[in-house]
Design goal:
By secondary structure, the chain is mainly alpha-helical. It contains 9 helices and no strands. It has one domain. The chain is 71% helix and 0% strand.
């Protein structure tokens, strides 16, 4: 028997709990969420949550592989692992908040509300990246910084590892664009000028938005003595990111 939207949302919330405390658990949760989301008709595998979760799963697998192989991340204290976990928890929390009615951030709610529309998978994936990078990432950084009174390495060491994630996106951009049927990947075939140009543009967008997230987190962190140092900027950023999400899907 096929899932109803409400039943599927509750199943996804169950798969999002308990919150993972290591990256392998994050990977398993994302895989299961993608699989269960794909069971919701009529979109199936092209469902919005399934599309974004598949993308997120692949990037997280590559981050863990890069960490285990050594050389890519050098900051002491496993900063990048801590950030990966804090980052994933925000997506999982949004899934739970949507299912129980407590209120997911509006930028995520756009994806959850429209996940069954007849929309190209790359648009769903882009909407998820928009919510997760443009909104969640800055606050995931704050979560890590707040958790450790003794910082995990210097600011320079943390930022170097943060930038190293861009390398993973760059390595995967062509495959990801092809997998999610980005329109430029079909013009002239794989490796064409349009395909390469689209991949470069994707790299620039990811790099630029990740830089903005770091800068935004750094600015908030300077005002951490204020009780509202997170809440006021969070509402503003959610509003802006929601506008982008609406434009994408």
């Amino acid at each position: 028997m096929a899932d109803s939207p409400k039943a599927n949302a509750k199943a996804l919330a169950k798969l999002s709990e308990p919150r993972p405390d290591d990256v392998p658990k994050v990977i398993r949760a994302l895989e299961r969420i993608a699989d269960r989301a794909a069971k919701l008709p009529p979109q199936g595998a092209e469902d919005g949550v399934a599309s974004f979760s598949r993308l997120y799963h692949q990037i997280t697998v590559d981050v863990l592989d890069g960490y285990r192989q050594g050389g890519l991340f050098t900051c002491p204290g496993d900063f990048i692992i801590e950030l990966d976990i804090a980052f994933a928890r925000r997506y999982l929390d949004a899934i739970v908040a949507h299912a129980d009615g407590s209120g997911a951030p509006r930028c995520w709610q756009v994806l959850f509300d429209r996940r069954q529309e007849d929309t190209a998978p790359w648009r769903f994936a882009a909407a998820g990246v928009n919510a997760h990078v443009n909104f969640d990432l800055a606050f995931a950084l704050l979560d890590v910084w707040e958790r450790h009174r003794v910082p995990l390495g210097t600011v320079e060491q943390q930022y170097a590892d943060y930038l190293a994630i861009n390398t993973i996106f760059e390595r995967n951009m062509d495959e990801l664009c092809n997998r999610f049927d980005a329109p430029w990947s079909d013009v002239g075939g794989d490796g064409s000028f349009f395909d390469r140009a689209g991949n470069v543009l994707g790299d620039i967008l990811v790099t630029g938005t990740r830089d903005l997230a770091w800068d935004f987190a750094d600015r908030m962190w300077r005002h951490r003595g204020s009780s509202s140092y997170r809440t006021v900027p969070e509402a503003t950023l959610d509003l802006l990111t929601t506008g982008l999400a609406t434009a994408l899907i």
